[in-house]
Write a structure and sequence with these properties.
Blueprint lengths: L1 E5 L4 H4 L3 H9 L3 E6 L1 H9 L3 E4 L5 H10 L5 H32 L3 E4 L4 H9 L6 E2 L4 H18 L3 H7 L2 E3 L13 E3 L35
Parallel strand pairs: 1-2, 1-4, 2-3, 5-6, 6-7
Helix pairs in contact: 4-5, 5-6, 5-7, 7-8
Length: 220
């Protein structure tokens, strides 16, 4: 079985995917990571096969992050989820994911909920694309809805298809009621973050700000 795993560049987005990747590799499956440039070297050093996508234009990303501290929390969430994840990150990663899904032909695409290009490329080819929780289900659902206008530009109906795809989480339903119809909870102790996972950015200019190379902030 071939599984493509896709993540945005933040440590908190990649780390929940790694236990799944390791389990798949242990059972003998082929696993291919498709990630932004920031994550590539560390993953390759850890023995993963990696395809590298592109970063968004740094000037456009910077323009958005300059706005975040000046607006309300709701407006900031729209800027991050719609315009960073939904528009810039998706456009940057989509060509690589289209190419890899077309040539490597994975059986499954396992994705960070904020990495939308992989869902678009997978959906176009009829490949299942479950997402692995990085936060509470309600937060994930709101983030997806905020990204909707940009996602639908790429593929009509993709927002509903993502919402209907399997949602994998460690939170029990009693603590995290889910708006996603196909939810699977996996309980048990959380493994320590592998030492090869890239560290968080040390940038401190603004708590809610991400540069072209530093991980995203709150998505509430």
């Amino acid at each position: 079985m071939r599984t493509l795993i896709a993540s945005t560049q933040g440590t908190g987005h990649l780390a929940p995917l790694l236990p799944f990747a390791e389990a798949l590799r242990r059972r003998g499956d082929e696993v291919l990571m498709v990630v932004p440039p920031r994550l590539a070297a560390e993953l390759r050093d850890a023995g993963w096969s990696v395809e590298v996508g592109d970063d968004p234009p740094a000037d456009e990303l910077e323009e958005i992050w300059q706005q975040v501290p000046r607006v309300s929390p709701d407006e900031a969430a729209v800027l991050v989820n719609r315009h960073v994840f939904g528009r810039l990150d998706t456009a940057a990663m989509l060509p690589t994911l289209e190419r890899v899904c077309g040539s490597w032909r994975p059986d499954l695409v396992l994705r960070d909920p904020c990495e939308y290009a992989s869902a678009i490329a997978a959906e176009r080819r009829g490949i299942p694309h479950p997402h692995v929780a990085i936060s509470l289900a309600e937060v994930e659902s709101r983030s997806l809805e905020r990204a909707r206008p940009e996602l639908e530009r790429h593929l009509a109906g993709i927002t509903e298809r993502i919402h209907a795809s399997p949602y994998l989480t460690r939170f029990p339903a009693s603590l995290d009621p889910s708006p996603f119809p196909h939810r699977t909870s996996r309980h048990g102790s959380r493994r320590p973050m592998p030492s090869h996972t890239p560290p968080r950015s040390s940038a401190t200019a603004a708590p809610a700000r991400r540069s072209a190379r530093s991980p995203p902030a709150s998505r509430s």
